[in-house]
Specification:
Number of strands: 14
Structural class: alpha+beta
Strand order of the largest sheet: 3-4-5-6
Radius of gyration: 41 Å
Number of helices: 4
Helix content: 10-25%
Order of helices and strands: HHHEEHEEEEEEEEEEEE
Strand content: 25-35%
Distance between the termini: 111 Å
Length: 302
């Protein structure tokens, strides 16, 4: 066979062999077609670790949520103004030791406020807003009534010692009484906030009245507005007490219901205010409780 023919035949056989190999015997060289497994292990390890981390975080969150609900407290958080707000931890109600009933104050009985009085003077609504104790009796005011409630400290239902002093309907509007205090033989009541607008000048102020208490009625000895003004009728003074300064003069501390003593910003917690006031008598016989100072209540008192 000539040399050229022999070479051509070998070339055709080589091409047939390589074609058959590529079509049917590719499994002989798997490493050439695919990436080596040794080069893939870092990718698999990364995926596995990421999955394990996600599972761990989910389990931790579920465990914390369960613990939070079971123990009744939350971790400190930051509010929208980035101020640190510490929520008080409540004590866990542990009944497992069998002593819960021995160390807890038990209610012997309960009755509505109206059950105290044998003669409620036609009232069927009592919204008591302030209660004080003077000698052997307790006194209370309701923001819906002009009467002063007086009852014995035993709280015996329908006792003859439990009476309504004064006419509960003395004025057509509600009394707005939110505070009652006693100082050196005199009772003081505080009306939360009253519209004293004159002309076009809007003016909402608290009213402090001095009362002389009788057996069936009381006498209003003096009525004075506060110098301190409010934004409306619903967020005035919610409570008040009396103290004496270094000159032994009477000073009234009025607790504002809304934060900043404001209706607009009443819900901005942590900004409570107490207003210190002293009575000032004008030459024309009128009077006013002048503001001495606004006292900021610490946010921790919430």
């Amino acid at each position: 066979m000539p040399m050229d023919a022999s070479a051509s035949l070998m070339h055709r056989r080589y091409r047939m062999y390589t074609t058959r190999l590529s079509e049917t015997d590719t499994d002989l060289y798997p490493i050439a077609e695919e990436e080596s497994p040794r080069r893939k292990w870092p990718f698999y390890a990364l995926v596995t670790c990421s999955f394990a981390l996600v599972v761990f975080l989910c389990v931790s969150a579920a465990s914390y949520s369960q613990e939070e609900h079971s123990h009744g407290y939350k971790l400190p958080t930051f509010d929208k103004r980035n101020r640190f707000t510490q929520q008080k931890r409540t004590l866990e109600n542990n009944c497992s030791d069998g002593l819960y009933s021995k160390r807890t104050l038990q209610r012997a009985y309960e009755l509505p406020f109206s059950a105290l009085f044998p003669n409620p003077k036609g009232q069927n609504k009592f919204e008591a807003s302030s209660v004080i104790v003077v000698d052997d009796f307790s006194y209370a005011v309701c923001d819906s009534s002009w009467a002063i409630s007086k009852f014995g400290r035993s709280l015996t239902p329908f006792s003859p010692h439990n009476v309504q002093i004064g006419d509960p309907n003395r004025e057509p509007e509600d009394s707005g009484y939110e505070a009652l205090f006693y100082e050196q033989g005199m009772f003081y009541v505080v009306r939360e906030s009253v519209d004293l607008t004159e002309g076009k000048r809007t003016s909402f102020r608290a009213i402090i009245q001095e009362l002389k208490m009788g057996d069936d009625d009381y006498e209003v000895l003096d009525t004075c507005p506060t110098e301190f003004k409010f934004e409306g009728e619903s967020k005035g003074f919610e409570g008040a007490i009396a103290i004496r300064d270094l000159q032994n003069e009477l000073v009234v501390l009025g607790l504002c219901e809304g934060n900043y003593c404001s209706e607009q910003y009443k819900s901005d917690t942590g900004h409570g205010r107490v207003v210190a006031m002293k009575k000032h008598q004008h030459d024309d016989g009128t009077c006013v409780w002048k503001t001495l100072k606004q006292i900021h209540i610490p946010p921790s008192a919430n």
